[in-house]
Amino acid sequence: MPELPSPRPEGRRAPSTRDSALDPRSRALEEAADLAMKAPSVHNTQPWRIELQPDRLILRADRSRQLRALDPLGRELVLSVGAALLNARVALAARGWAVTVERVPDPGDGDLLAVVRPVEGSPEPGLAELAPAVGRRRTNRRRFTAHELPERLLRMLTSWARDEGATLVPVLSDTHRLLVTRLTQEADQLQNADPEYRAELRQWTTRPYAHGDGVPPEAVPHVTGREKEALPLRDFDSRGSGGLPPRTDPEAGQTLLLLTTAADDPGAWLRAGEAMERLLLELTRKDWVASPVTQAVEVPLTRTRLRSALTWDAHPQILLRIGRAEPTPSSPRRRRSEVVANSRRQPPPPPGAPHETPHPVDAPAGHRPVSDGRGGTTWT
Question: Comparing 22-138 with 151-323, is the CATH topology the same?
Fold first, then answer.
């Protein structure tokens, strides 16, 4: 088959110098890997490996980064890879490519989660416009102001989730809000009573920013010990180094959305991760912010009770609180060379020459050690 053209949507940047020697498909795949690496992940573990081939991008689980205490089945690891998959699809659509995606294609290889191929045809509708939002998206743990989602936007989010193979369940009634609050509190207490869980948390919240992963103190609220909030976010600040204000409760009612799937297996988890990232990028485009509150979904007992009360036969995968707030700093990212195999880009300049920084240019200066905290799942 002859090489397909790569129409570049108006306003897209020209290829970088390092990409200029690549054919259009290879250049698009390299950019897909770049955007995949910016996806949110549990504890900012970035638990994926990306392999580039001339005609495809392969996403694999990195089990060395699985949270064994919090996530023994790997559900949240696969959710994280699903978010990376959505970003890869966005990048290819922005380059003008249609795609075929094989999800969990080999039952004998549980680490092989997705194979993405650029193909001839029209890009997936609505995805190309999300590309600028990938770099802007943040997990925001600030206090949200008194803004609830407009009904029209809620309907659109529900439709986008459905497009990605998931169902969005708004938590609307006072009874259901109180139930979610109670189950979150209960799950938070059960998790923090587990010493292995606490040790695992410390491992991922005590890393220097330059390490490229984990949860930085600049992105978590400072904890004074006086906070008594109804819906507890994760406390990552027992050392007092949190860079955000202590309060996280909203000024008024906040929007809570529960993302669910019909099945509860790796294929469904992957689709839930894609749906989650689709919603987060759509919200970012419209200047809304979000923060997952997932304790009640992580503990089997509270997850079962949440399912029976809110979703009937569907399986809860992630709970989002949504509102408006000031932005928060970016989180660190791993070096590309540690994540991406078979890249065809030109090698980086020799030492001493101008070169790309290995981590975001807006990384905060004077990095402090991150709190050992008392929390759990944090998506950054």
Answer: yes
- Over residues 222-244, the pLDDT tens digits come to 444 444 555 655 454 435 444 44
Domain boundaries, the chain: 22-138, 151-323
Write the CA distances from 184 to 66, 187, 191, 300, 377, integer angstroms.
Answer: 23, 5, 10, 12, 12
Check whether domain 22-138 has CATH 3.30.310.50, yes or no: no
Q: Tell the CATH superfamily of the 151-323 domain.
A: NADH Oxidase (3.40.109.10)
> Closest Cα to residue 40, out of 82, 93, 101, 72?
82
In this prediction the pTM is 0.83
Radius of gyration (C-alpha) of the chain in whole angstroms? 20
Which helix (H) or strand (E) segment holds residue 297: the answer is helix 295-298
Give the whole-angstrom CA distance, residue 315 versus residue 302: 12
Instruction: Say if residues 197 and 191 touch (Cβ distance below 8 Å).
Output: yes
Q: Residues 273, 78: contact at Cβ < 8 Å?
A: yes
Q: Please check whether residue 225 is in contact with residue 290, taking contact to mean a CB–CB distance below 8 angstroms.
A: no
